């Protein structure tokens, strides 16, 4: 999977979570000890933003990052789960 697509998805998820929490970009920036401009870049999924900024934004909203498969498992992988 394309790394740019991954950061864009992460940015959208962070934005959605921020909105569900009722936070403005400025409020999240203050909670995460980042600038509002950095939050904007995070929410856009910018490749120039360090992973630490994504982590700070997530942490400020009491969220964590989980790694999940981007593709469906193969039949062999599924069969291996039941053996």
Account of the protein in words:
With 83 residues, this protein is an all-alpha fold. It is built from five helices and no strands. The protein is elongated. The mean pLDDT is 92.
| SSE succession | HHHHH
Distance between the termini: 29 Å
**Uncertain stretches:** none
Proportion in β-strands = under 5%
Shape: elongated
- CA radius of gyration: 16 Å
Report the biggest beta sheet as strand number plus sense, adding barrel if it closes. none
Mean pLDDT, all residues: 92
Specify the structural class.
mainly alpha
Summed up, the helix count is: 5
Instruction: Classify the helix fraction into a percent range.
Output: 55-70%
Query: What's the total count of β strands?
Result: 0
Short note summarizing the structure:
By secondary structure, this protein is mainly α. It has five helices and no strands.
Record the SSE blueprint.
Layout: H1 3-20, H2 25-32, H3 36-44, H4 51-60, H5 75-81
Helix pairs in contact: 1-3, 2-3, 2-4
Task: List descriptors.
63% helix, mainly alpha, 83 residues, elongated, 0% strand, 5 helices
């Amino acid at each position: 999977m394309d790394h740019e697509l991954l950061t864009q998805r992460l940015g959208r998820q962070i934005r959605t979570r921020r909105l569900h929490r009722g936070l403005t970009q400025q409020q999240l920036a203050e909670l995460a000890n980042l600038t509002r401009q950095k939050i904007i870049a995070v929410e856009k999924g910018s490749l120039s933003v360090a992973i630490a900024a994504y982590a700070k934004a997530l942490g400020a909203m009491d969220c964590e990052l989980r790694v999940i498969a981007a593709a469906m498992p193969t039949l062999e992988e599924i069969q291996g789960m039941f053996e």
